[in-house]
Design brief:
The structure holds 2 protein chains of 2 kinds. Chain A is an alpha+beta fold. Helices cover 37% and strands 17% of the residues of chain A. In chain A, the strands form 4 sheets. In chain A, strands 1, 2, 6, 7, 8, 9 and 16 form a 7-stranded mixed β-sheet that branches. Chain A has a 4-stranded antiparallel β-sheet with strand order 15-10-17-18. In chain A, strands 11-14-13-12 form a 4-stranded antiparallel β-sheet, with helices on one face. Chain B is 37% helix and 11% strand. Classes of the chains: A alpha+beta, B alpha+beta. The complex binds flavin-adenine dinucleotide and FE2/S2 (inorganic) cluster.
């Protein structure tokens, strides 16, 4: 019933082609030119993922007056001191060399001062202006140039193929993955000596979310199902200013932080500058988590704007100033019919990034033999909160690390079992063979509302408990859902497969959030509103069988 | 508002395609064009019909995944705007819209509004990159570039590879796309060493892929969502001509030696 499937043998299987996946491919090839590399992307090659969406920029200590130590301090302070220190140090210490590499070896070109030096701008939460950028199109530049470099090295590229699950041998070692070719609906089994997960997380299980449409927490779900350990899953970052437009579903697309940085004001539905009540000193320039939560509380208390948001107003800065400094944002708003330069615009907090993910060491090894991880799929680097500008730094730095270490750590090819391949394929096909059941779109909408209301910006014990139960029943409903049984480019089927992963990861987020009985970084519990360092200056780990454990933060040895 | 949509439906490359008429009654002016199609698709699924396939990802106008013809215009009526950024308030109640995929022999059909644009990937693979011997890492600030060149390169680098330029061109040429790559890399110091080989190799690949030749009509510039200028084509042609002459010169010298 699953039909014939192709079996591909490869040395290195890379799942995902954002900053992390592409740089891993480039580095692995350059370190070991004979290595057979396969890169799999769910969307179009070079186009999918969030690395492209990076507008703000890339943090790296380049200036003589700045230092990696300062960047490190800023990073762990933002992370409320639960970052894995080894990983955070690797991030900041390697970032300058990666920026240099992006320019010299890959042809990126970042904005310059008139004298030719790289221009670095200010970003929230940083003690130095260290954000490298190319206008507000930094991500396009990085992705275009890396894509070119990958084409030049000519690995096997499978686009519009989605990884369904990992293949493991009898010892639990990972030996490849089963993919679904979205265009043909056929399965492909990849038998690999090493597998890298780089699918970029993506908290799109929330009603208002900003991640690229192809992302569905696939890597985290896939890794977890294969037995990998996860950490900090309760840490989901909400960006404070996602654009909203009445009954449009374009909701959530991010208006950059620089608007607040430049002096933008936030007002609630009654015209009050509500940040005065939450952070009287920093006001709108407070950190992402505080501003996002404050807006949320205003909306919840019924003081929101007509479309359940708040207003951002930059008009007092002068239209000319706004147009000159934020052309991309002005265009984005005007596309939707708003005049950012002259009038307040409605915004809402929007789910943006998952700090949690698979545990890894400084060589990008997960806890499973044969499985590596890099980018947003990995946990530990950012702790409880990510600094703006550290996301693309993470994906590119750890992509390089993965590509440098994997060739020397790669093991022999282990045989995959046909039975396992068929089981994964059968499971994916199940909804196509069922009748009755409800629409996946209904289940999705319910999940998104539930996550927003109960596992979102402000959480509490009873709500989280309730959410766990509701997520379980949504999962059962999904298991009964049926889908029209054609295979080629079946969008509803893709939605089903996304939902399966969203629901699993949502449960893990709620579970982890229940375990953390304090408030820290992006995780806020109204029943435990302060940080409790004695009990919770720790990381929450989730192992197989949903076993939750708190362990001390890893210190820096290097 | 209410719209009449005529959408190109084609099950697969092996099937013949045709325009199918849909009446869409639930269009809000706040929606983007793709959202309007999402709603249509949910209705089709609810009725047990196959949804309309179209490529999309970022929905922010920066990934280059989306794109189709609306009433014969690539990406529709708003200049400098991809279909994902196009909003329904630009249309009015009762409008009749014809949606068709990019049509070019170098872009074979996949399904409905989706075509295979991997020809672009192969053009890049033929030379659209820089190669620099990996040396010892230096300070990234060491590549000073005059700001003027940097700005020009930046405009050319804005290309998202959507394919609208090919779809709009009566010759189905890929000149704006290829020109943007060549102009961009040729303006940067990192791109100098292979500048002329790049122009020759990419031009050869463009021919292999079956794109037409550019006759300077300019339709491409008019539909480019990133507003890339025809100037990049002139730059490409200059590099190409220079490269061809050098090559001929080399051949001549070799022969006479
Ligand atoms: C709107 C927005 C703006 C941002 N701005 C900034 C910024 O200014 N600065 C900053 O530092 N960070 C920013 N970030 C965060 C940053 O984008 C991410 O941290 C980073 O790009 C993640 O890189 P990645 O390589 O891990 O994943 P991505 O770049 O997201 O790539 C994921 C890849 O995996 C593929 N994939 C997904 N699922 C599967 C599957 N099942 N099978 C196969 N392939 C799959 C996708 O197609 C894609 O190719 C922003 C994020 C968003 C959403
Ligand atoms: S969907 Fe990315 S440009 Fe339109």
């Amino acid at each position: 019933m699953i039909g014939t499937y192709e079996v591909v043998e490869t040395d290195l299987l890379i799942l995902g082609g954002g900053g992390a996946g592409l740089l891993a491919a480039i580095h692995a090839h350059d370190n070991a030119p004979d290595l057979d590399i396969t890169v799999v992307v769910k969307a179009l090659f070079g186009k999918g993922g969030c690395t492209r969406l990076v507008q703000g920029g890339y943090n790296a200590a380049l200036d003589a007056a700045d230092s990696v130590e300062r960047h490190f301090e800023d990073t762990i302070k933002a992370g409320s001191f639960i970052n894995d220190r080894e990983l955070a140090w690797l991030l900041v210490s390697r970032a300058p060399a990666v920026v240099d590499e992006l320019e010299k070896r890959h042809g990126c070109y970042f904005d310059r001062h008139p004298d030719g030096r790289i221009h670095q701008k200010a970003f929230a939460g940083q003690s130095f202006d260290r954000t490298v950028h190319k206008g507000d199109l930094t991500g396009i530049e990085i992705m275009n140039r890396l894509t070119e470099q990958v084409f030049k090295r000519a690995p096997r590229i499978l686009e519009e193929h989605r990884a369904l699950d990992l293949l493991t041998d009898s010892n639990g070692s990972v030996c490849g993955a089963v993919l679904l070719d979205i265009r043909t609906g056929r399965f492909v089994a990849v038998n690999a000596r090493a597998t890298l997960l780089a699918t970029g997380g993506g908290p799109n299980m929330y009603r208002i979310a900003a991640a690229a449409a192809d992302k569905a927490c696939d890597g985290i779900a896939i890794g977890y199902r294969a037995g990998a350990e996860l950490m900090d899953m309760e840490m989901v970052q909400f960006h404070p200013t996602g654009l909203i437009a009445a009954d449009s579903r374009m909701t959530g697309t991010v208006l950059e932080e620089g608007l607040r940085g430049a002096g933008g004001h936030l007002f609630n539905g009654r015209g009050e500058r509500f940040m005065e009540r939450y952070d009287a000193v920093r006001l709108e320039r407070s950190t992402r988590d505080v501003v996002a939560r404050s807006s949320y509380l205003e909306i919840r208390a019924g003081r929101g704007s007509p479309n359940n948001g708040v207003f951002i107003d930059v008009s007092h800065l002068g239209a000319e100033f706004v147009i000159r400094n934020f052309p991309g944002m002005v265009k984005r708003c005007s596309d939707m019919g708003f005049d950012l330069a002259r009038k307040p615009v409605e915004v809402s907090p929007t789910a943006h990034f998952i700090m949690g993910g698979l545990c890894m060491d400084t060589e990008t090894r997960s806890r499973l033999d044969g499985l590596f991880v890099a980018g947003e799929d990995a946990g530990g680097v950012h702790g409880a909160n990510r600094l703006g500008g550290n996301g693309v730094a993470e994906s590119t730095v750890f992509g390089c690390v993965a590509g440098d270490t994997i060739p020397s750590l790669i093991s022999r090819l282990r045989k995959v079992s046909d039975a396992q391949i068929e089981q994964i394929a059968m499971e994916a096909l199940a909804p196509l063979t069922r009748n009755g059941g409800e629409s996946v779109f209904e289940i999705k909408a319910e999940m998104q509302n539930l996550m927003w209301d109960k596992v979102g910006l402000v959480r509490n014990g009873p709500d989280l408990q309730a959410a766990m139960g509701e997520l379980e029943s949504l999962t059962e409903r999904l298991e009964r859902a049926s889908i029209r049984s054609f295979r080629k480019y079946n969008l509803e089927w893709q939605e089903y497969l996304n939902l399966k992963n969203f629901l699993l990861v949502s449960r893990l987020v709620a579970l982890s959030a229940l375990a953390r009985e304090d408030s820290r970084g992006s995780h806020y519990r109204s029943d435990f509103p302060g940080a409790n360092d004695e009990r919770f200056l720790k990381n929450v780990y989730i192992g197989p069988g949903q076993k939750v454990e708190l362990r001390p933060v890893r210190e820096r040895h290097s | 508002m209410r719209l009449i949509l005529h959408v190109w439906r084609q099950k697969s490359p092996a099937h013949a395609g045709q325009m199918v008429r849909y009446e869409h009654k639930q269009v809000s002016t706040h929606m983007s064009f793709l959202e309007m199609l999402d709603v249509l698709n949910e209705e089709l699924i609810a009725k047990g019909e196959e949804p309309v396939a179209f490529d999309h990802d970022c929905r922010e106008g920066i990934c280059g995944s989306c794109g189709f013809m609306i009433n014969g215009v690539a990406h529709g009526p708003q200049p400098g705007t991809t279909v994902c950024q196009l909003h329904m308030r630009h249309f009015k109640d009762g409008d009749e819209l014809y949606l068709e995929p990019w049509r070019a022999s170098a872009f074979p059909a996949v399904k409905d509004l989706v075509v295979d644009r991997s020809a672009f990937d192969r053009i890049i693979a033929s030379g659209g990159f820089i190669s620099v011997a990996a040396g010892s890492p230096q300070d990234a600030n060491c590549i000073p570039v005059p700001k003027e060149n940097a700005d020009l390169a930046m405009d050319a680098a804005a290309c998202i590879g959507c394919g609208a330029c090919v779809a709009a061109c009566p010759n189905a040429a890929a000149a704006l796309f290829t020109g943007a790559k060549i102009a961009h890399l040729g303006l940067l110091p990192q791109g100098q060493p292979e500048r002329y080989d790049r122009a020759l190799n990419m031009a050869a690949q463009v021919r292999t892929e079956g794109f037409g030749s550019c006759t300077n009509i300019g339709e491409c510039e008019a539909v480019c969502p990133k507003e890339i200028k025809l100037e990049v084509i002139a730059r490409m042609n200059r590099d190409f001509i220079k490269a061809s002459w050098t090559q001929r010169g080399d051949a001549f010298r070799n022969e006479s030696a």
